[in-house]
From TrEMBL, chain A:
Domain ABC transporter per the UniProt entry, residue ranges: 24-262
UniProt name for this protein: ABC transporter ATP-binding protein
GO molecular function, one term: ATP hydrolysis activity
GO biological process, one term: L-amino acid transport
Family label: Belongs to the ABC transporter superfamily.
Automatic annotation (TrEMBL), chain B:
Segments crossing the lipid bilayer: 7-29, 49-79, 91-114, 140-159, 190-211, 264-282
Subcellular compartments: Cell membrane
Family: Belongs to the binding-protein-dependent transport system permease family. LivHM subfamily.
Alphabetized InterPro entries for the sequence: ABC_transp_permease, BCAA_transport_permease
Transport among keywords: yes
Any one of the GO BP annotations: amino acid transport
Membrane topology classification: Multi-pass membrane protein
Pfam families per record: BPD_transp_2
Keywords: Amino-acid transport, Cell membrane, Membrane, Transmembrane, Transmembrane helix, Transport
Signal peptide (residue range): none
Full protein name: Branched-chain amino acid ABC transporter permease
GO molecular function, one term: transmembrane transporter activity
A cellular-component GO term for this protein: plasma membrane
Length: 284, 290
């Protein structure tokens, strides 16, 4: 398929033919809320097939905004994709309807889980499989129960009464019902106990290993995410400030200081302070 | 004793009509979060539609009812598409105001399209009095009770086991999360408006068969609304049952106290019930666990 080069591509167009085709690709995306507030500026992100890519950054960096754009629900919050495009499997999905995007296999587990509290576990899963045929739904529901035995035990329970960890498992199980080719998870570890977080991350690793799923992992918990990811992007104030292979990012001194909470030997030399200031100036 | 039974039975008959209209309110509220103040007017339009079919085409009861059902569905879909969908994403209050405006427009359209005189909807059936064991009810009254019970059972199955029913509950709980699962909220809303219009419309046709057709029929909405509040705005089944409760209460109050009590008895009961259960008799208490 021929992809016409973007006029505003700039330096990115020099790598118009990447070595391995990315399954999901944000190209120079700019997102504006209320026609006034720029939430994301000129962000390009590639998620290669079969990999786990971490999208890191603090509150308000624009991570969730990117996921909303990916799922086509920006308009529900008066946001719009003003520039750039989002491609999935070679197709421009920037302006597709949310249900079409789910049918293409691009699904997300939203921030804060957003399970349907008054519905039972099974009913939540039925909604996850809304776009698929009834017979397939039954089969996939059993798969979800195998992956999360806890959900099977609680299948007839009202979802709102379950613990946070169980709700997160349900949220992931629900997203899997649509059989995603790429699953995006928005802060799956938020507000959960460390043991539960371990379990969630085991599942994410299993999804890639056993189901060949591609994962876009949005996290504030950089340390955790970089352990499992192949590559990472760091977002600040709506821009990508750093990206690269996960192990390299984890070793990066700035990342260690600002996101992993590690400091080198307790005291900083003037040289490092300058480095920090220089970095900040470049960022703003 | 037989006075009590008579009052109760005829209360159930009128209560079934309230219940049908109340279910119409609840279906729209459940799916869209809106109170549709044009429900009574939509009910009236459908009844007039049935009368038009009966007087111009054929008086065959099946044809008239089928025509009314189709007409009601088209009316509901048209209102959703033309008036309500542009309001999607706007504040709820604005949407409710739109239904108020719609109510006035539909109410006036009766005198534009038809006329201001009362008419009898005579289909040859429904007006004859059926007697059984000292009870006497008109055929259409029996039909109202049977229809309500049938719809209650039908909606129970729909909301529990059908994908669309579950999706409707999901959209009601969190329409954005539902959108992320590929549930098109707009389609669910359209379905709800059509279903609501049909349910309430059947109530309107049955009402017109028992009583008469007149431009004041929209007041049925004012009778159905308290039933919805009593049953719980988000509870379709509860609204239907609450219609029966309101109908019986009205009749008993009117029979044993003074006829003047009839109109306020239902509202008095609502005030008391809401003090004890603000979410209605069968409404869902919001789950606050996070």
């Amino acid at each position: 398929m021929l992809v016409p080069p973007h006029p505003q591509d700039g330096p990115a167009s020099s790598v118009a033919a990447p070595p391995q085709a990315a399954l999901l690709e944000f190209r120079n995306v700019q997102i504006v809320y209320d026609n006034a507030i720029e939430a994301v500026r000129d962000v390009s992100i590639e998620v290669p097939k079969g990999q786990i890519v971490a999208l890191l950054g603090s509150n308000g960096a624009g991570k969730s905004t990117l996921l909303k754009a990916m799922s086509g629900i920006l308009h529900t919050e008066d946001g719009s994709l003003d520039n750039g495009s989002i491609h999935f499997g070679g197709e421009d999905v920037s302006h597709l309807a949310p249900d079409t995007i789910v049918r293409r296999g691009l699904v997300q587990v939203p921030e804060g889980r957003r399970i349907f509290p008054a519905l039972t576990v099974e009913e939540n899963l039925v909604i996850g499989g809304y776009t698929t045929a009834a017979a397939v739904v039954r089969e996939r529901r059993e798969q979800a129960f195998t992956l999360f035995p806890r959900l099977a035990e609680r299948r007839h329970q009202i979802a709102g009464y379950m613990s946070g960890g169980e709700q997160q498992m349900l949220a992931i199980g629900r997203a899997l019902m649509a059989k995603p080719a790429l699953l995006a998870l928005d802060e799956p570890s938020l507000g959960l106990a460390p043991l539960i977080i371990d379990r969630i991350y085991e599942v994410i690793a299993a999804l890639r290993r056993d189901f060949a799923m591609t994962v876009l992992l949005v996290e504030q918990n950089a340390q955790r995410a970089l352990q499992i990811a192949d590559a990472g992007y760091i977002l600040e104030n709506g821009r990508v400030v750093l990206d690269g292979p996960a192990d390299k990012l984890a070793r990066n001194q700035d990342v260690q200081e600002f996101y992993l909470g590690l400091s080198s030997a307790g005291h900083k030399s003037m040289r490092e302070v300058k480095h920090y200031k220089r970095r900040k100036r470049w960022l703003s | 004793m037989s006075f009590l039974i008579d009052l109760t039975v005829s209360g159930l008959a009128i209560g079934a009509l309230y219940g049908l209209i109340a279910m119409g309110f609840a279906v729209i509220y459940k799916a869209t979060g809106l109170v549709n103040f044009a429900q009574g007017e939509m009910t009236m339009i459908v009844a007039y539609l049935a009368w038009t079919i009966a007087t111009t085409l054929t008086g065959n009861v099946f044809v008239v009812v089928a025509g009314a059902v189709i007409g009601a569905a088209v009316l509901g879909l048209a209102i959703e598409r033309i008036v309500m969908r542009p309001m999607l994403g706007e504040p709820l209050f604005a949407g409710v105001m739109v239904t108020v405006a719609l109510a006035v427009i539909l109410r006036s359209s009766i005198t534009f399209i038809w006329d201001a005189y009362p008419h009898a909807l005579d289909l040859g059936v429904g007006r004859d009095v059926l007697r059984a064991g000292g009870l006497s009810l008109r055929g259409a009254q029996v039909a109202a009770i049977v229809t309500l019970l049938g719809l209650l059972a039908g909606f129970y199955v729909f909301f529990r086991f059908s994908k669309f029913g579950i999706a409707m509950r999901a959209v009601a709980a969190d329409d954005r999360a539902a959108l992320l699962m590929g549930v098109s909220a707009a389609r669910i809303h359209a379905l709800a408006w059509a279903a609501s219009s049909v349910i309430a419309g059947i109530g309107g046709v049955l009402f017109a068969m028992v009583y008469d057709l007149s431009p004041a029929m929209f007041a049925l909405g004012l009778k159905g609304f308290p039933a919805t509040i009593l049953g719980g705005l988000d509870s379709v089944l509860g609204s239907g049952v609450a219609g029966l409760i309101i109908g019986v209460t009205e009749n008993l109050a009117g029979g044993y106290l003074t006829p003047g009590m009839k109109d306020i008895a239902g509202f008095l009961m609502i005030i008391v019930v809401l003090m004890v259960r603000p979410f209605g008799l069968f409404g869902e208490r919001e789950i606050v666990r996070v």
